[in-house]
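note to self: dont lose this again. the chain is below, predicted strucutre after it. 233 aa total, dont forget to put it in the shared folder this time
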Amino acid sequence: MKMGTMKQLLLLTDGCSNTGEDPAMMAAFARRRGITVNVIGIVDGNGTDPGLAEIEAIAKAGGGESRIVQAAALSETVVNVTRQAMTGTIYSIINEELRGILNKEANVESLPPATRSEIAEKVEDISEEAALELLVLTDMSASMKLKLPAVKEALYDLSMSMQSRIGPSSFSLWTFPGKYSAAEERIGWTNDAGKLAESFPQLLSGGITPTGPAIRQALSSFMEMSEYDEKSI
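---
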């Protein structure tokens, strides 16, 4: 199976968007362009925040994973969601190929146990070896201020995990709202995962939560990356 570059947008947020386009619509737009949108909702208490439904809707529209966690559990969740999304992408491709070869109802789960085990091992190898483009989009609205130390720690752990991969990886960090626009690029595309957490000590939280416009603006970075890759061939 030929595996192209896996493209992921990881959204870290704790509240409802309150201006601009519907973020789920923008996540669906990303999915149509081969970019998986994963969302981690960071909560303070018992997980009854009204923004939780939106978090799940964004991830569903973007074909990705969603998790609701307290700040203390953020680091492990960020790493797991990123890796699970890679695995999910690979299984989706395998299932699509199976349906083309066998029938419309075919999928990995319908195969004999021994065959499923072989595929699972192959999927793990591919997820480590395939090229990855990961853009982290972090909510910096006012309510996130006390959660920023946990976000920084989570991105540090993510960077350590990603550096252990065999395949080529590129990373970018965006935050929203930006000073003059919906979102702002903090770290341009780099192969050094360690840079993901570097700029956080200087970041200040803002007011509004333009999640939809922020996703739209961050997606332009993937387009620029694709253009760069084409020119490099």
